[in-house]
Amino acid sequence: MEKVILFIALSLPLIYISRQSLFEPNSHGFTRFFSWECIIALFVFNYRQWFKEPFSLTQIISWLLLIISIWFVLEGVVLLRKARKPGVVRVDDKLYRFEKTTELITSGIYKYIRHPLYSSLLFMTWGIWFKQPGVTTAFVALLSSVLLWFTAKRDERECMAYFGDSYREYMTRTKRLIPFVL
What we know:
It is built from six helices and no strands. By secondary structure, it is an all-alpha fold.
């Protein structure tokens, strides 16, 4: 019962934040919401293991993935904030304020991957899973990963509509989620 209450308590703010995306099934925010829910479920299953056996191999892998996750999100958000041109407004109710970039970012982490924030969620997913690896939670982690893949693909469609050919060309130089790999 405790895990159900924790899951609901963590999901309610997320539902509120995602309320507009939940009514737009073709938006990237729709699939992102369900990925977030998977991440919450993983956390609820594994939170008691967070600091147990801190020097075990799975804990070390977990912390490395979580540190990468934090680095990707920080670098991505900082660059997104810098990419807003003063006086230029991007009107799109499906996007959060920080997502409303008005120029294409191709420096920093964006030089290597197109979606560092989704990559961050991907690394977080597997970082949480490694806290206590299991078959059931592996299914949830895989589902989250697939949802993040679809989220990135949908986001790319939206970016191509906004940025046009420059985004298409950018896609040929960068990976989607994992630098040098994927």
